Amino acid sequence: MTYCLAIKVDQGLVFASDSRTHAGVDYASVYSKMYRFDLHSDRLMIVLAAGNLATTQAVINLIRRDLENPGALYNLNTVAYLYDAASYIGETSVRVQEQHASAMQRCGISGEASFILGGQIQGQPPEIYLIYPQGNYITVSPDNPYLQIGETKYGKPILDRMIAPATTLEDAARCALVSIDSTMRSNISVGPPVEVAIYRRNSFVVGHYLHLDYSSPLYALIQKQWAEGIRNAFTLLPRFEWEDGGSIGSEQSQ
Questions:
Q1: Which regions form coiled coils (predicted)?
Q2: Could you report the per-residue pLDDT of 62-89, keeping only the tens digit for each?
Q3: Whole-number Cα distances in Å, 232 to 74, 112, 182
Q4: Which residues constitute the domain of residue 202?
Q5: Cβ atoms of 116 and 152 closer than 8 Å
Q6: 187-242 pLDDT per residue, tens
Q7: 137, β-bridge pairs
């Protein structure tokens, strides 16, 4: 399992991912799940990947091969819109899965993979897309300005509470780190290093990139202060009516 997320705010985009992969309970390894590509100066795209590692690596390799092929009619440099790139990645993923479907089914292994594509093409706004194993995709809305793949449930509550279009890029990045840390605390299949990329609207370069382990001072401080903040907030919750100094009146006890 893995956990990746992308956030879209007015100022730009934030991407974050863990790096743990599993092949059974007794074998875990570290692989980056965040991919950047050498593209023309009028565009930037980042892909996050979750699911079967062989499938995700094959898809990324095919994307890179098409970029290096001067005769390729369709690649990340030739698409006119980001949703065309999402379609291209989805079609590539389906093709890879179909090549190995029968062998994987015999072994009881799923070859499915999901991707998040985000970036910007000049003249268009920044966008993010979640690409399903079936090749179709969705994007965000103002009410739901983020996308997740992998082990999503533990890191979702803070995103729902904190992320809005007006959120700054830096706050969105801090929120992404807390979201991943919450997931790692609840699920051992998600683990460090954590990668974070911050893209500012219309810059066409990754403005900031972080590679954080448990020992990274920034990550350790975020963990510490977030845990302390939660404990402090908990102590301020209203008291029950039977507690000394309670703030809930008896009329509310039914």
A1: none
A2: 999 999 998 888 899 999 999 999 999 9
A3: 54, 42, 17
A4: 3-236
A5: no
A6: 877 878 999 999 999 999 999 999 999 889 998 999 899 999 999 999 999 988 88
A7: 131
How many domains does the chain contain in total? Answer: 1
Cβ 195 vs Cβ 34: under 8 Å: yes
Examine residue 250 and state whether it is found in any structural domain, yes or no.
no
**How is residue 62 written in tokens?**
């095919």
217 domain residue, yes or no: yes
Q: What pLDDT, on a 0 to 100 scale, did the predictor assign at position 145?
A: 96
CATH number, domain with residue 10: 3.60.20.10
Residue 254 lies in a domain: no
Distance from C-alpha of 95 to C-alpha of 13, rounded to nearest angstrom: 29
Q: How far is CA 104 from the centre of its chain?
A: 26
* 230 conformational bin, left if phi > 0, alpha if psi -120 to 50, beta if neither: alpha
- Give me the count of residues in the chain: 254
